[in-house]
Amino acid sequence: TRPTDKPLRLPLQDVYKIGGIGTVPVGRVETGVLRPGMVVTFAPVNITTEVKSVEMHHEALSEALPGDNVGFNVKNVSVKDIRRGNVCGDSKNDPPQEAAQFVAQVIILNHPGQISAGYSPVIDCHTAHIACKFAELKEKIDRRSGKKLEDNPKSLKSGDAAIVDMVPGKPMCVESFSQYPPLGRFAVRDMRQTVAVGVIKNVEKKAAGAGKVTKSAQKA
């Protein structure tokens, strides 16, 4: 499927408060289409509201497509409610949700020591920058063929590839690489460098409680 055929995913790069207009999140459409009048949900904060307008380079758009860097005005949402790293999606079509944990295939690039379960580096995934714990090292694999070499390895070192269970330290929204590639790739940052890279195989979504739905979203 082409990126436009998938449900909307737009990771926020910034959120501005613009006098006379209100709250304007900014980011790049990764998949799907963003249109004025759409009711969108922001994850992991679980806020649902209506998009009043969409613009790019100070011109109003009737739709924003993958690759477009846009600002969009949302109703009844404070600039304090949403932030960089949140993900915007269509409330009626596979809305984004907080990830309770995720399984990833990682390749250790350059780490001076051994990485074992409990390691909690910062993960850069789309615009999110959040510490995640390597909760369980499930298997060590051959980085070329993907064949399993060892179950439950005690530790990993530079050059190793592995399947790991990861748990975000703070609320985070990520997706599997197969469904939403730009939200399913990440870099592992530690000691001011990239120590590993990974792709997300599957995500266990957190059961969403009742989120905040603005008045305009209820009407739309």
Can you describe what's shown?
The protein has 220 residues and is mainly β. Helix content is 2%, strand content 48%. It has 2 domains: 3-96, Translation factors (Elongation Factor Tu (Ef-tu), domain 3), CATH 2.40.30.10; 99-205, Translation factors (Elongation Factor Tu (Ef-tu), domain 3). The strands form 2 sheets. The chain has a 6-stranded antiparallel beta barrel. It comes from Polypterus ornatipinnis. Belongs to the TRAFAC class translation factor GTPase superfamily. Classic translation factor GTPase family. EF-Tu/EF-1A subfamily. Keywords: Elongation factor, GTP-binding, Nucleotide-binding, Protein biosynthesis. InterPro entries: EFTu-like_2 (IPR004161), GTP-eEF1A_C (IPR054696), Transl_B-barrel_sf (IPR009000), Transl_elong_EF1A/Init_IF2_C (IPR009001).
